Amino acid sequence: MAIDSKVVAQVAHLARLKVDQADSDALSSRLNDILAMVDQLQQADVADVAPMAHPLDVTQPLRDDEVSEPNIRDKALEIAPAAEDGCFLVPRVIE
Amino acid sequence: MSWEVVIGLEIHVQLNTTSKLFSGSKLSTGAEPNTQASLVDLGMPGTLPVVNKEAVRKAALFGLAINADICRHSVFERKNYFYPDLPKGYQTTQLDKPIVGAGVVEVQLESGEKKVVRIHHAHLEEDAGKSLHEDFHGMTGIDLNRAGTPLIEVVTEPDMSNAEEAVAFAKKLHAIVTSIGICDGDMSQGNMRFDVNVSIRKPGEPLGTRTETKNLNSFRFMERAIKLEVERQIDVLEDGGEIVQETRLYNGDTHTARSMRSKEDANDYRYFPCPDLLPVEITDADLDALKAAMPELPDARKARFIADYQLSEYDADLLSGDLATAAFFEGATKAGGDAKLAANWVMGELAAKLNAEEKAIGESPVSAEQLGQLIARLKDGTISSKIAKQVFEACWAGEGDPDVVIEAKGLKQMSDSGELEKIVDDIIANNAPQVEDYRNSDDDKRKKKIGFFVGQAMKATQGKANPQQLNQLLKQKLDQ
Amino acid sequence: MHTKTLTELKAGLANGDFSSRELTEHFLARIKQFDGELNSFVTVTEQQALAQADAADQAIAAGQTGLLTGLPIAHKDIFCTEGVRTSCGSKMLDSFIAPYTATVVNKMASEGAVMLGKTNMDEFAMGSSNETSYYGPVKNPWDLERVPGGSSGGAAACLGARLAPAATGTDTGGSIRQPAALNNITGLKPTYGRVSRWGMIAFASSLDQAGPMGQSAEDCALMLQAMAGHDHRDSTSLNQKVDDYLGALKEDISGLTIGIPEEFFPDTLDGAIADNSRAAIRELEKLGAKVVSVSLPSIKLSVPAYYVIAPAEASSNLSRFDGVRFGHRCDDPKDLEDLYKRSRSEGFGDEVKRRILVGTYALSAGYYDAYYRRAQQVRRLIRDDFARAFEKVDVLMGPTAPETAFKLGAKKDDPVSMYMADVFTIGVNLAGLPALSMPTGFINGLPTGTQVIGNYFREGQILNVAHKYQQVTDWHRQLPTFGGEQ
């Protein structure tokens, strides 16, 4: 399943990455190398094999419904790239 | 040929847990921005989610309440997209294995008809934060206090065919989630939010293209938004146009809706099982415990109201739907000793007053016990129904319990027959012409003419005369 | 002091041969002297280390010691450390001062460990040569023109050159074991879920596991004892009793069955690499172990399965780096899209971007079944292969890496050939099994390692196998000439 610059551009947009036109061909070719390697998966006979999401067959531990987290706003805002009035700041969001 | 409307709903129900779905942050509204956002809620690198037991319990309880299958190993998935109020770049939600499978909700329509709405499934997920647009000089402020709040998203089949049905269903769902105590049900706080999918078609034709109107937070807005969208779709199609599949935003203040700026990329959320979380197991023992702890559901309550209080089906439906209303009614009945009177007062005077002041029943200045006391005084003849309204107003204004008001204002009915007899005698003595006129009339006319004497007596007693007693006394004296 | 193992240093502190301050100052001095060239540390926390050392000396004097009291340890810069930059080898987090501390770091500190600093690594742990770090490549102390392996390259190199007596690492596809092999040290990847991931910046959540890197199996056992255990903050950490790993080293290994997967000795494998591992296995036979041949037929698909699963999880895990709440943010974003795209493109390096793109593609509509779902199915086949093998054998052995350290830049333009560096280690991560790499000789002066894979939660057993081997060999005691005075 080879991908071209156009697909790369679509995927890059989904991942919110910028791909410069100049790098696009080289990038597509590298990605195609990786996908060609990955395509070996198509050889596998996986009929009736359940996908395995976790190494161990265990179930989710559940947490008691209690407040255990302190207010860390000052700490969090201190490392934020842009903050004001207790909020993180981003360019205007248009819905 | 007329249009057929097809409506499906997605309802976000906020669970009333103490802490968030995946972190131990406090759940509450109105806190200063980002003061209830933990490392996990902020999506800090290296942080991991742990599932809140109570959120799972409440979701499963809902499933049992709608007779749904409960998934024994439900799976959390990641829904990937970028948005500033979504700190991790994905929403942790459920897709293939939601905790609640298919179920049904039966709805009583105003016409008296019953309607079954099928629930496709309900899943657990986390809420996003909030984007604040004011006060940031053209920028947007991000508050993540709400991020991670547990929700269940209830998805219906497209089983409703007009706005009234959709609203009736929504109210029923509200009744269920508040009755089983999993949601506070405060619409003004966004405890329940509705997304409405609407399409239209000619009868017999395949489903039309649907639009989704998002984030409606009141029954009234939902009803109006649906009607508006149906009209719009009819106009478009009848003008030879086509419906575009899109997300729309309804503005309740202006009663207008618009298409949300369509994202240039088709939504490709790249769902996959969240590798930080494991399947959530619900055992037979868990289910047994939930069933044993299941509070009374609205339908059962309604049946009980009909059986125990001899209410009409319509009254029982109105009173049993909302848990707070039901509790108020039962409290007033218990204190007042008369279900029929309690029902009339709750649906009548109280509802009108709450409505006029835009108050929820929980905020009523007159308590169920106070209303019960009022009813008791009505029943034992201490006050007349006319005076009762006056007492109710005084209670509403905070002047104290009915007994206190009655006493303080001297509103007790005059039931001392000696005192009343004296007043009646005075009236007869002072209105000779009217007395004569009365006595010269036949029975039919007398029935009308007695009104004058009743009026005079009420005036003299400031309305405190017991009407029956007064009538009897007047007849007795005038007819002799 | 730096030629002593962690275990020996612990005894020295207990004997009063030297203080923790002296020990810490010694290693800080070595870092100052040699790390300019090696580049194995991103941050050295000198003041904090000395304060911790002084506290340790007081604890020792008061007789209140933990497992690691006074012992200097270097942490991979993937573990969050409150108040200290936690870069993950990325420009994205170049200025990120973590607001909290990882469980692994906390657990070791509570046992008295002294943190020397944070070690260099491939960016977001994506790499097998430590060349993707924003802070520049780490050199291999055995040959400064060669790579140390990755992604825990800084940890392995500083330990190989004895700039630290022990280090922590993380292993998603071989990131502890492969650099351990290339730097002549011992490194253990525990069973998935044995060590908490809280505070460890995620690469691929279902594969990532932290583990010890030491001079010997005994050192690793000592460290694992402090690192392992359930953490209520990590849903995937197992609530299972922690074994006595040092105690396990006393067990007899005669009668142990070693399985040799034929797939770990393919015809294409460098003969000298194969010979070193076979020689190590023969040493264990001399100690009473039995050797049988086994097959793991699906393991050949481990690299393709891994390069779907790991990038897919990574593409999602790295979405939080968006320039909003922490990390790099571009200058003057003109709108939201611009903020996202420029912050992320400036903050991430090429290999990270490649993997995000591959992972995004593999999860996207229309490709999910062909890639992600299929990879998860193959993952189960691989796990089942291991399970069948462990019905017959106690441990599995083979070479850790298919080659010795390669030249810096040699594979820079060929990601796929770089990915093959982990061909023997990746299957273990997919299955979630514990495995270690131990030094088993040299080829042309460059170290080689042999991998010992155990069944779930049998860390004690594989550590014991390595320990028994290290008692009759001295490969693990060999030091590079770099670092002087050997």
Automatic annotation (TrEMBL), chain A:
SUPFAM superfamilies assigned: Glu-tRNAGln amidotransferase C subunit
Enzyme class: ligase
An example molecular function term from Gene Ontology annotations: ATP binding
InterPro entries noted in UniProt: Asp/Glu-ADT_sf_sub_c (IPR036113), GatC (IPR003837)
Top-level taxon of origin: Bacteria
Keyword Lipid metabolism: no
EC code(s) of this entry: 6.3.5.-
Reactions catalysed according to its record: L-aspartyl-tRNA(Asn) + L-glutamine + ATP + H2O = L-asparaginyl-tRNA(Asn) + L-glutamate + ADP + phosphate + 2 H(+); L-glutamyl-tRNA(Gln) + L-glutamine + ATP + H2O = L-glutaminyl-tRNA(Gln) + L-glutamate + ADP + phosphate + H(+)
GO biological process, one term: glutaminyl-tRNAGln biosynthesis via transamidation
Database matches in Pfam families: GatC (PF02686)
Alphabetical list of Gene3D superfamilies matching this protein: Glu-tRNAGln amidotransferase C subunit, N-terminal domain
Keyword match ATP-binding: yes
Keywords per UniProt: ATP-binding, Ligase, Nucleotide-binding, Protein biosynthesis, Transferase
Sequence similarity: Belongs to the GatC family.
Protein role: Allows the formation of correctly charged Asn-tRNA(Asn) or Gln-tRNA(Gln) through the transamidation of misacylated Asp-tRNA(Asn) or Glu-tRNA(Gln) in organisms which lack either or both of asparaginyl-tRNA or glutaminyl-tRNA synthetases. The reaction takes place in the presence of glutamine and ATP through an activated phospho-Asp-tRNA(Asn) or phospho-Glu-tRNA(Gln).
Subunit structure: Heterotrimer of A, B and C subunits.
The name this protein goes by in its record: Aspartyl/glutamyl-tRNA(Asn/Gln) amidotransferase subunit C
Record organism: Alcanivorax nanhaiticus
Lineage, broadest ranks: Bacteria, Pseudomonadati, Pseudomonadota, Gammaproteobacteria, Oceanospirillales
UniProtKB/TrEMBL annotation, chain B:
Species for this entry: Alcanivorax nanhaiticus
Assembly notes: Heterotrimer of A, B and C subunits.
UniProt lineage: Bacteria, Pseudomonadati, Pseudomonadota, Gammaproteobacteria, Oceanospirillales
Keyword ATP-binding in annotation: yes
Domain of life: Bacteria
GO biological process: glutaminyl-tRNAGln biosynthesis via transamidation; translation
Enzyme Commission number(s) from the entry: 6.3.5.-
SUPFAM superfamilies (alphabetical): GatB/YqeY motif, Glutamine synthetase/guanido kinase
Catalytic reaction list: L-aspartyl-tRNA(Asn) + L-glutamine + ATP + H2O = L-asparaginyl-tRNA(Asn) + L-glutamate + ADP + phosphate + 2 H(+); L-glutamyl-tRNA(Gln) + L-glutamine + ATP + H2O = L-glutaminyl-tRNA(Gln) + L-glutamate + ADP + phosphate + H(+)
Function: Allows the formation of correctly charged Asn-tRNA(Asn) or Gln-tRNA(Gln) through the transamidation of misacylated Asp-tRNA(Asn) or Glu-tRNA(Gln) in organisms which lack either or both of asparaginyl-tRNA or glutaminyl-tRNA synthetases. The reaction takes place in the presence of glutamine and ATP through an activated phospho-Asp-tRNA(Asn) or phospho-Glu-tRNA(Gln).
InterPro entries for this protein: Asn/Gln-tRNA_amidoTrfase_suB/E, Asn/Gln-tRNA_Trfase_suB/E_cat, Asn/Gln_amidotransferase, Asn/Gln_tRNA_amidoTrase-B-like, GatB, GatB_C_1, GatB_Yqey_C_2, Gln-tRNA_amidoTrfase_suB_CS
Family of the protein in this entry: Belongs to the GatB/GatE family. GatB subfamily.
Transmembrane segments: none
Stretches assigned to the Asn/Gln amidotransferase domain: 327-478
Record GO terms (molecular function): asparaginyl-tRNA synthase (glutamine-hydrolyzing) activity; ATP binding; glutaminyl-tRNA synthase (glutamine-hydrolyzing) activity; transferase activity
Keywords, ordered alphabetically: ATP-binding, Ligase, Nucleotide-binding, Protein biosynthesis, Transferase
Protein name (database record): Aspartyl/glutamyl-tRNA(Asn/Gln) amidotransferase subunit B
UniProtKB/TrEMBL annotation, chain C:
Keywords in alphabetical order: ATP-binding, Ligase, Nucleotide-binding, Protein biosynthesis, Transferase
Top-level division of the source organism's lineage: Bacteria
Domain Amidase: 22-463
Alphabetized SUPFAM superfamilies for the sequence: Amidase signature (AS) enzymes (SSF75304)
GO MF, any single term: transferase activity
Pfam families, alphabetized: Amidase
Family annotation (InterPro entries): Amidase, Amidase_CS, Amidase_dom, AS_sf, GatA
Listed GO biological process terms: translation
Assembly mode: Heterotrimer of A, B and C subunits.
Listed name of the protein: Glutamyl-tRNA(Gln) amidotransferase subunit A
Organism: Alcanivorax nanhaiticus
